Amino acid sequence: MQNSNPAVIPWNHRVEEALEAAVEQGDYSVMERLLDVLSNPCAHSIEQAEHCTVPESATPYQTFCGT
User: Which domain of life is it from (predicted)?
Assistant: First the structure.
């Protein structure tokens, strides 16, 4: 199952966090870390643990389909 199911999904709040750090603070380390974790999403490694779940502190994120 682990070979077919990713441990890491690029959750919207993680992507927004990385973009905010890069744009507003010039800190690309958050983006680099996210890209590193996503480079092998089925690894199920300890390094990926913080990216495997949505923290309780994350506000609900709503997207809309359509144009």
Answer: Bacteria
